[in-house]
Amino acid sequence: MQSPLFAHTEVQSQDRYALQNDKLLRVSLNGHEDILARQGSMVAYQGMLEFDGEYQTGGQQRARAMTGEGLSLMRCSGQGTVYLANLAQSIHIVDVDHDGLTVDGAYVLALDSHLHWDVINVDSQYGISGSGKYNLAISGQGKVALMTSGQPLMMQVTPEKYVNADADAVVAWSTSLRVQMQSQTSSSGVWRRRGNTGEGWELSFMGQGFALVQPSEMLPPQNAMVQGQGLAAQFGMGQQGVHGQNQGNAWS
User: Fold this and answer.
1) In terms of residue numbers, what domain contains 91?
2) Which of 69, 101, 174, 218 is deepest in the core (most CB within 10 A)?
3) Please, are residues 87 and 142 in contact by the beta-carbon 8 Å criterion?
C-alpha cells in the first residue's frame, strides 16, 4: 500500500513531552512518573500503559461544585508512549516554574502528576470588585500542555507596559502578575457590552510576566451555542452568557 499518509510517521524524540504535530501531543512514560491527562483525550498508545480516573480531594470537589471550574483528569502510568489530543485544538507545552501559572481549566490537556492545582476566584485572589472569574492556579515545577483555538498570541507584560485582553480570549497568565477585571462602557450605552462595540469584560495584567491569548472568544465550534439574550448574557454572565451556554460540551 502506498499513500502520502506514510509521511506522517511517529516523531522520534528524547523529550518526555513532544509534539507529534501542532494538534497531537506525544508523551513518553518510563514507569516511574505518571502524568495526568484530560479524560477521554487518549487517541493512541504503545507499550504497557494503564489509565485510571484521578481522585480529587474534598476541597477540589467542593470548588468544582461551587464554581464549575476544575479538571476532569485520568492518570496515565506504566512504560510506553501515549498520544493525546482534544477536538484538533492547537497544543502548546509550557514549563511551569516558581512563578506559577494561572489558567482556565478548559484549556489544560495534560500535566505532570507532581504539580499542584487549586481553583481561585480572580476577584478574591486579587481584590477586584465586579463579577468574578474562576481559574486554576498551577504551582510547582514541571510541564503543562495547553490547548488553544488556533495559534495564540503570547504577550509580555512589564512594569512599563501592561496588557489588556478580552476575558473570554485569555487562556493563561503568569501567576505573579497583578490582575484587574473591568468592563469598559460609555455612558450612552452602559447597559450594553462596551456600549455598541460588542465587547464585554476585560482583564488587565500588570507586573512582570506573560499573558497568553487565543484568537477566539468562544469554545470550539462543534458544540458552541449562540449567546443568549438579556442583560446577563450581554455581559457574558450567568446561564445565558458565553460560559453558561457552553456548559456540558466537550471542553467543559
Assistant:
1) 13-242
2) 101
3) no
**What does the angle CA 149 – CA 154 – CA 159 come to, to the nearest 5 degrees?**
145
Rg (CA), the chain: 19
What pTM does this model have?
A: 0.73
- Whether 88 is covered by a domain: the verdict is yes
Q: What single letter denotes the amino acid at residue 70?
A: G
| 2-29 average pLDDT score | 90
Tally of domains in the chain: 1
| CATH number of the domain to which 216 belongs | 3.60.160.10
- CA dihedral in degrees (132, 57, 176, 146; nearest 10)? -90
Rounded-to-integer distance, Cα 75 and Cα 56, Å: 12
- Facing residues of 151 across strands? none
Note the pLDDT tens digit of each residue in 75-111. 999 999 999 999 999 999 999 988 889 998 889 999 9
- 117 lies in some domain: yes
Q: Is residue 2 part of a domain?
A: no
Residue 250 is assigned to a structural domain of this protein: no
More confident residue, 237 or 22: 22
Distance CA 83, CA 73 (A): 15
Instruction: Provide the pairing of β-strand 209-213 with 153-157.
Output: antiparallel
